[in-house]
Specification:
A hairpin with a 2-residue loop joins strand 4 (61-69) and strand 5 (72-79). Strands 6-1-7-8 form a 4-stranded parallel β-sheet, with helices on one face. It has a 4-stranded mixed β-sheet with strand order 3-2-5-4. Helix 1 (11-20) crosses helix 8. With 169 residues, the chain is of the alpha/beta class. The protein has helices at residues 11-20, 49-57, 80-85, 93-96, 101-105, 116-124, 133-144, 161-168; strands at 2-5, 29-30, 45-46, 61-69, 72-79, 89-90, 109-112, 152-154. The model has no long low-confidence stretch (mean pLDDT 91).
Length: 169
Amino acid sequence: VIILGHSGSGKNFLLEGLIEKGYKYLPKITTRPIRENEKDGVDYHFLTEDEYNILYKNDLVKIHQNFRINKQNWHYAITKESFENSNVFIMTPEELTFLSKEERKKCFVVFIDIPEKIRRKRLSKRKDNNDSIDRRILADRVDFKYFKDYDMRINDPEFEVKLVYDFAF
């Protein structure tokens, strides 16, 4: 299962629910600063730029995306090992393009597409001091503008994990 959605849409809620139902998840790696409410090895594996470059240069990265934010370059990636040993992922539309046609056919892609007003409210409750809500909302508008490569679209902000679990199986 691959979960995609705008910032504040409920991706982590769905991920945690699928993990409770037995899905295996290994976190992405990133070079961005850790947020106050995050834990290394749980939310992401937080790496230095040098550590990321070593993995990338040694061809251990399967899927990657770079973001330039506040004059900083942040990398997000899924290692080949994580891709082979997990069965649920959170990705962006760009990251999804790294899958081959055969890999994509084996996946069930869920797009969480809830109203911006609700997402803004959720984001305002977070302690994301290293990134602005407006920047994230605007970036999501660009990233998801033409996105259509999904198997299920959820637009109910009060969705239940069971809905996805029942369809994915």
